Amino acid sequence: MTPIQLNGQPTQVDVEPDAPLLWVLRAELQLTGTKFGCGMALCGACTVHLDGVPTRSCVTPLGSAAGKSVTTIEGLQGPVADALRAAWTALDVVQCGYCQSGQIMQAHALLTVHPQPTDEQIDEAMSGIICRCGTYPRVRAAIHQAAGRKA
Amino acid sequence: MTTTRRRFILGTVAAAGALVLGWSVLPPRQRLLTDDPLPVEPGQAAFNGWVKIGADGAVTVIMSKSEMGQGVLTSLSMLLADELDADWGRVTTEMAPIDKIYNNISVVVDGLPFHPDSQGLVRRVASHLTAKAMGHVGVMMTGGSSSVKDLWLPMREAGAAARQMLLAAAAQQWGVALADCRTERGQVLGPSGQMAGYGSLVAAAALVGVPSSIRLKTPAEFKLIGQPMHRLDSQAKITGSGQFGMDVLPPDLLYASVTMCPTLGGRVARFDATQATTAPGVRHVLAVEPLHGGTGGVAVIAGRPWQAQRALGAVSVTWDHGALATFNSDAVMTQLAQTLEDGAKGFSYYSTGDADAALRGAARTVSAEYRAPYLAHATMEPMNCTVLLKDGQATVWVPTQVPSMARNAVAGVLGLKPEAVTVNVMLLGGGFGRRLEVDFIAQAAAIARAAEGSPVQTVWSREQDMQHDFYRPACVSRFTAGLSAQGGLLAWKNTSAGQAIMPQVLKRNFGLPSGGPDKTSAEGAFDQPYEWPAARIAHEAVDLPLQVGFWRAVGHSHQAFFKECFLDEVAHAAQADPVAFRASLLQRHPRHLAVLQKVASMSSWGQPAAPGRARGVALHESFGSVVAQVAEVSVRADNSIQVHRVWCTIDCGTPVNPQLIVQQLESGIVFGLSAALYGQIDIVNGQVQASNFHDQAALRMNECPAVECAVMPSTEPPEGVGEPGLPPIAPAVANALFALTGQRLRSLPLRLA
């Protein structure tokens, strides 16, 4: 039995501790907002926060989340999350949307560490999340907007 | 109004409290009413096959096109909501059932191999007959940048029809003249201050028949069309609540993982599941045959995804590699080039004058050969499909661009009538043409049959997805152009060679033989606005066993690179500026000229770029739209290519939503640039060498140029938007690299020496 703090709720997860956190979230805990894209931590679609740190859940065994706080896109809240979602909506960032959970989770972590990120910091933080639809220019602009600056 | 045949009695309240509107009879080839009335909630009415309105005033637009990022949920809703005079804030969407009124007409008509300039009788008759036929025997299909074009009139008519019915109902209630009533944002307003929300009129509208004549708005009356309305699907996609294929969670869901023969088209000869069957959570292990052009493999069904994935590793399989075991992409490139070398004439899609004679009279000739590789689609969401077979009925949840083909595929595998199969079209995590195929859907049905009674979700790994795609065909193209002593273009000869897509699609999906040339392989080479004084543009279809498919922009994806780069070579030989040279060939094409001149001015073409940078231009027409791009590039210390900025203009006819159009241009540019820099699928002995994003890279945030777009104003009917942004980017970048380095890159992906 693996105890985690899931989106603020203490949760006991009764599956194999070596099961990938991504699939535990999706299939066992029925939280499908975190996506599967590559299975090798190359694309970032599976990004969650583990004690606030952006983590690729597809290569993270459930066991390594034991006793930790796990935040998924469904549980992302607070003023930074609100600012990101408002900017994402205002700038019509999303296209297919499949990578967007990962984009937002990663962007949230970036703004938490760098409230006014430079373009270089955005590049460094966000280049791990692949988007095939080409939302990059708007993701960048939305991060700047959420940070309270014009893009 | 009277009708002689009525399928449904006007104004009845059906057993469940549903209102059935006067589903009166319209001419057989109409696109307003489905065969069966749409299901409705209590108090809600379906005014036609495209819109329902509830007693609370909520407007539900029936969405017959798949949302794969291109924004149709929003743009198509705008068409109907504008004519309806709906309150945009009350508009939501619901995926359509399968019905022939949703068949894609325009994409088939536009697929006929005519030059865009051709306005003759043959084209008009062929287009008319094709449209009529497709209304009956066509398919529901999202693709070919055709959604807005296909539904520009039908959805507007549907909204206008519903509005007229609401007006008639209100006028009747108030005892006033119809002409004295008007509509505004979800309300009917009467001559003496009367007001009624649409919701309150739904019951009364049930007594009004579908109007026999429908008046559409003039552009001056548009309230939504032409405005940058925000996307309707943002909320779902930024909260994680949007339902993609894999997100459906029916009760007792089982999960399946599959490993297919590493050789494309191969199948399982035998397999040993002894260890796998006893692995934790495993319910079934089975072999699945190649279906609809796909590849056979072994599937494991288990209670949890990781259980299925792991048990798969414990299955030992002996493969029957099949006919593609000797297929090598290297050899294909050689073969295609040899075909041209041997003088293949191909099918001539366009010719004018006597190109050979003109070449003989030229002061100077320029020749070159261009190449493009096979490409994978690599949608972010891998192939997946969920199927429940129970009590002789099948329910399917699938991200698909072709719902009716999906239904037929599942019905075929399960031995059911199509009517026994319900297809739920989910959000697509990218389509790009991959989800025009039904191989993975038929496979999922075959897998689900083994667990009859329980829903089974089959999800491909990234590796399986990358290695079992329907690749964009490789192509080789040869050009010769002739110039006069003054540097004027005299002749343009072009023959390309590659696999044809349509014949394979017809065979693997419909069992039909192909007839006629496959325009989708040649498009982009011949259907262009340049006023070549003498030209012959042809394509030789080479029949090979590899299953190829539609990749975003299809033939344009390689033909534009070939054509725009060679045109640049010719301009250089003529010592002419690339923009000016193109302009000289567009004297009778003001629309294209305007697009070119706009991008030149946006990019300050006449002025030199910053030190270490250079610009290149490309102009291309595809899917009815004209796009010009300028790319500004530099070369990094490690000789890799950096694209700093892209300027882009489009003329796509009436811009329905300028924000979505710009978004799609950005999309096409990034997708096309990703392929231009990294796209190359090598196939050795029938096995795709790449497997994931480490060996088939995708463009990332730090490599993405700044993009600036302009949408030309127009009052012509809308043309394509989803794909036209892609074809010009590779040549614009290649032409910029030539200007910067003097290296002429004639193959993709782009690599500097």
Structure in words:
The complex is a heterodimer of chains A (151) and B (753). With 151 residues, chain A is of the alpha+beta class. Chain A has helices at residues 21-28, 79-90, 100-113, 119-126, 136-146; strands at residues 2-6, 9-13, 47-50, 53-56, 69-71. Chain A has a five-stranded mixed beta sheet with strand order 2-1-5-3-4, sandwiched between helices. Chain A is globular. Chain B is an alpha+beta fold. Chain B contains 20 helices and 27 strands. Chain B folds into three domains: 45-104 and 139-236, 2-Layer Sandwich (Aldehyde Oxidoreductase, domain 4), CATH 3.30.365.10; 245-323 and 383-459, Aldehyde Oxidoreductase, domain 4, CATH 3.30.365.10; 329-375 and 471-741, Aldehyde oxidase/xanthine dehydrogenase, molybdopterin binding domain (Aldehyde Oxidoreductase, domain 4), CATH 3.30.365.10. In chain B, strand 25 (683-684) and strand 26 form a beta hairpin. Chain B has a seven-stranded mixed beta sheet. Classes of the chains: A alpha+beta (151), B alpha+beta (753). At the A-B interface, helix 1, helix 2, helix 3, helix 4 and helix 5 of A face helix 6 and helix 19 of B.
Give a concise summary.
Chain A is α+β, with helices and mostly antiparallel strands. Helices cover 35% and strands 14% of the residues of chain A. In chain A, strands 2-1-5-3-4 form a 5-stranded mixed β-sheet, sandwiched between helices.
Blueprint of the fold:
The complex is a heterodimer of chains A (151) and B (753).
Chain A: E1 2-6, E2 9-13, H1 21-28, E3 47-50, E4 53-56, E5 69-71, H2 79-90, H3 100-113, H4 119-126, H5 136-146
Parallel strand pairs in A: 1-5
Antiparallel strand pairs in A: 1-2, 3-4, 3-5
Chain B: E1 45-48, E2 51-53, E3 59-63, H1 72-84, E4 91-95, H2 106-110, H3 121-137, H4 147-174, E5 182-184, E6 187-189, E7 195-197, H5 198-205, H6 234-239, E8 254-260, E9 267-272, H7 274-277, E10 282-288, E11 297-302, H8 305-312, E12 316-320, H9 329-341, E13 347-352, H10 355-360, E14 364-372, E15 384-390, E16 393-398, H11 403-414, E17 421-425, H12 439-449, E18 456-459, H13 462-467, E19 475-483, E20 489-498, H14 502-510, H15 519-522, E21 535-541, H16 556-573, H17 578-584, H18 590-602, E22 614-622, E23 625-635, E24 641-651, H19 658-678, E25 683-684, E26 687-688, E27 706-711, H20 729-741
Parallel strand pairs in B: 3-4, 8-18, 16-17, 20-21, 24-27
Antiparallel strand pairs in B: 1-2, 2-3, 5-6, 6-7, 8-11, 9-12, 10-11, 13-21, 14-19, 15-16, 15-18, 19-20, 22-23, 23-24, 25-26
